[in-house]
Design goal:
It is built from 15 helices and 20 strands. Strand 1, helix 1 and strand 2 form a beta-alpha-beta unit. Helix 5 packs across helix 10.
Length: 469
């Protein structure tokens, strides 16, 4: 649905975060330059300073109900709001159309062939932000004007404007947004899927629906080229007749052998020289190079440019050392799989890991099983699901595998972690759970961790390279 198709319709914005504000600015600009006015209202969980474009008295309250939603033709919802909730489902049954800002952006960029030219979309349960930023970094190193936007921290609607268009769009998409791309009816030029693990079950309702929504980027959206991880069983089993499929992590393409990067049988680079935290992130360099090749660019000469990449904050980010303790901020970690990957990076060191946060029902049994053989020195649980994780790990800790403690909050968890390490080792924040409830988002959680560790939170939060360059 193009923005022009909203003319004369009753439109609501649901959510007033950065995505909602970006949509509001786009609609205001459209209304200012068009003869047909838009009737736009904001529905939010909290009051906001906003007025409708023509009749602010019609719906002065902000409470979101099925009845209020069904009063609108179209609801532009923020990504964090699930379309599977009872209110949205009831309104949809009454004919209300729900779309996201991502769908609007893609509709505005459709070519005559139905493809959004130059778009390289990246999704995956783990590693998508770093992979997207690395893609933009390498494309820019090759001299291509490139946009870095999407879920990484710059809504696509914020770069919907008159500036000279980039040659490529490096776009990170969450599972909240991948279905939006499919619903837009526009085909991505290139779509990359890194991996699929259980995640966001509270938003999607089930693991099956999460996987279906995540994979919609390559199944329902039908990209011109799909770039897939051959090492992921769900991805390896996909059949995509509408797309040309390029594989990474396969012997005939870009893959790792130990820490060495290969293109087929050709050794290209020792990845230990690349500033990417964790072997799993260095492995995603294979995805980036495969996507670059899919865009028609010789990728091999660009591999070395990865050595100049600046790692992103809150992703296995080493803050520094204080009194013999090294502090590592992996606040982006919201699944047990991510916490396990973080621990793998520090297997040779004494680690106290901080686990827990918002409880959305993810299964921690695989994490517990791994603790039988590869446990850290200490585990400190915290947050709403902390007691559940603690109870699962307690029998293993009692068997002498590792120290285990509970804490009410981050500050108490840091104190216990330092005590259990005895003044030497790594305190690793890799919660394996979202920050909801205790913090506004994972960035605020990472900033608090840095502050408690004695570092300047303002110096560790900026994502380099956002926008068009």
């Amino acid at each position: 649905m193009r923005i022009s198709q909203l003319e004369g319709r009753r439109v609501a914005l649901w959510g007033w975060g950065r995505e909602g504000r970006a949509a509001w600015r786009v609609l205001r600009a459209r209304e200012a330059g068009e003869a047909k006015p838009l009737t736009v209202f904001c529905l939010a969980e909290e009051a906001v300073e906003i007025r409708a474009l023509d009749d602010p008295a019609l719906f002065p309250e902000t409470e979101v109900t099925a009845e209020r939603l069904s009063a609108f033709d179209i609801v532009i919802k923020s990504p964090g709001i699930s379309p599977y909730g009872a209110e949205a489902q009831a309104a949809a049954a009454q004919g209300t159309c729900f779309i996201g800002g991502t769908a609007l952006w893609f509709a505005e960029h459709a070519g005559d062939d139905g493809i959004a030219a130059g778009t390289i979309c990246i999704t995956g349960t783990k590693g998508k932000s770093t992979t997207t930023a690395l893609l933009a970094h390498l494309l820019r190193a090759a001299g291509h004007r490139t946009a870095l936007a999407g879920n990484i921290g710059l809504p696509l609607l914020e770069v919907l404007g008159p500036q000279p268009a980039p040659e490529f769009w490096a776009i990170e998409l969450s599972s909240y947004q991948t279905r939006d791309v499919a619903d837009s009816g526009v085909r991505p030029d290139i779509a990359v899927v890194l991996n699929v693990f259980p995640e966001h079950l509270d938003w999607h309702g089930s693991q099956a629906r999460y996987a279906a929504d995540k994979l919609a980027l390559v199944t329902a959206a039908r990209p011109r080229i799909a770039v897939l991880n051959a090492a992921d069983p769900q991805l390896a089993a996909l059949a995509l007749p509408a797309s040309e499929v390029h594989w990474f992590n396969r012997a005939d393409g870009w893959h790792l052998r130990g820490d060495d990067l290969y293109r087929g049988e050709r050794l290209v680079l020792d990845t230990t020289t690349v500033p990417l935290p964790g072997r799993h992130n260095r492995g995603n360099l294979c995805a980036v190079l495969t996507a670059i090749e899919a865009a028609g660019i010789d990728a091999a000469p660009l591999a070395a440019a990865a050595q100049g990449f600046r790692p992103l904050p809150n992703r296995l980010q080493t803050l520094g050392e204080r009194d013999g303790i090294v502090y590592v901020n992996d606040s982006i970690s919201t699944t047990p799989h991510a916490s396990l990957a973080a621990l793998d990076c520090f297997r040779s060191q004494r680690v106290a890991i901080l686990l827990g946060g918002h409880d959305r029902g993810l299964d921690w049994t695989e994490f517990a099983a791994r603790m039988r053989e590869h446990a850290p020195a200490a585990v400190v649980t915290m947050g709403a699901n902390g007691p559940r994780i603690h109870a699962l790990l307690a029998p293993l800790a009692q068997a002498g595998g590792f120290a285990l403690a509970q804490a009410q909050n981050m500050e108490a968890a840091m104190v216990r972690a330092r005590e259990l390490l005895g003044g030497q080792g790594v305190v690793l924040l890799s919660p394996g759970a979202p920050s909801f409830g205790a913090y506004r988002d994972y960035v605020a959680r990472g900033r608090h961790f840095a502050e408690l560790a004695g570092f300047d939170p303002g110096a560790i939060s900026a994502i380099p390279g956002l926008g068009i360059a």
